[in-house]
Fold this sequence. Notes:
The chain is α+β, with helices and mostly antiparallel strands and 475 residues long. It folds into four domains: 83 residues, no CATH class; 96 residues, Hect, E3 ligase catalytic domain fold; 146 residues, no CATH class; 97 residues. It is built from 14 helices and twelve strands. It has a three-stranded mixed sheet with strand order 7-11-12. Strands 8-9-10 form a three-stranded antiparallel sheet. The protein is extended. The C terminus is likely disordered.
Amino acid sequence: MLAFITATRVTFCLVHKLDRLARNRADDVAIHQALLSAGVTLVSATESIDQTPSGMLVHGIMSSIAEFYSRNLATEVTKGLTQKLAQGGTPMRAPVGYLNVRRTDEAGREVRTVEVDPERAPLVRWAFETYAKGETSVTGLLGDLTARGLTTVPSPKRPSKPLGKNTLYKLLTNPYYAGVIRYKGAVHPGAHEPLIEPALFDQVQSLLKARNAKMTRHVQHAHHLKGLLHCGSCGSRMLLDFATNPRGTTYAYFICSGRAAKRTTCTRRAVPVQVAERLVEDSYRDITISEDDYRHLAAEVDAAFDEQSTGRDQEFADLTTNRARLEAESDKLLAAHFADAIDLPTLKRHQDRLRAGLADIEQRLSEHDEHHSGARAFLHDSLRLLTDAHHAYAHSDDGNRRLANQAFYTRLEITEDEQLRPRLAEPFKTIITEIRGPTGGKNAKREHSTSTDVACSRKALWVGRAGLEPATQGL
Length: 475
């Protein structure tokens, strides 16, 4: 409108009411000033405003009322949404898998609620269960869901359509499906029927974070070592690659990305996936500790914490005593204020001082509890994991193997002579060094069979040790 009156000769600007023109004083002043500069007279169809002092007064009053109405309406809407959240209601459009419905209660009042979508809910539940297995990617899952017919809920303005990749990612990270409403960064318990268990939702989040942390991209084939292996010669990430011989048999390899992209002068040859899998699995045998080692190290951990507790127990007692003293002082100040012994500003000043002191004490007490119970339990759990590391890894699915590798190792390198050079993460590095010395004990080099089933390929066999064809007696 302002651009139009600047380019066109206009005498009057007619509005129904001032609150239709602007909803706050700042916009009203800016628009009115622009109209005056262009020689345009503002006229309201329902309000008596003009350039006289009384007309200007009415204009200012009506503009202030419009601003008050707008802000008060926003406050009331926020209050209503907050009350709905407190009752477990959904203050926004329900996600895919649910339907926003309107019903009439026994008193004849209209109630807006959320119900499970019988058509889409089973597909959403299947999506979480499938991704939690760790055998597919978001892109692969999207293709499967589209083939199964999952679409968005149609509206009067938007027809139903298949989900996009970003929409599916938001679906997988939305706690609403586990019974929790996330609104403006905060989470609230919902009264709607959850589609999945919280444990399943947490498992999916762990897989998503694990793959994002390693920047793993899944194009066609999934494998639990993708994104984890590095070339022992140049340090580049190793990629999963496939080669098919003239007879149609496909072989899987890990290749050096630096050599493949010609970013480095690396001459590292391809590593059969079978070899890489066996090397990583055998590395868990090398870090598995005996029950005797566990009991010995657990006793050392307890002794170390007990030794630290001698001084910390006194610190805990001092903090507790100081907290009681500050709380008693606060009570005395309040009693003195009620007896008119001190004025309100003095009371507030001392209460601020006491509040800061109590907050500092509470933080120190919390750190004390975390150090004693949390750290001790964490080290005991880490030691217990190492007693069964190889067996647990060997019997885990691909998703849990990926999580285990990221927990135990910071880096996995395969050398030119097909040995694994693992870099342990803490606290496992310190534990293994304590038991076996800086060298880490056993060598990771193992014997490998020549073929095995392909879990992620269209064909049957991995490649043998001697090139693209299976090994023969002449090689």
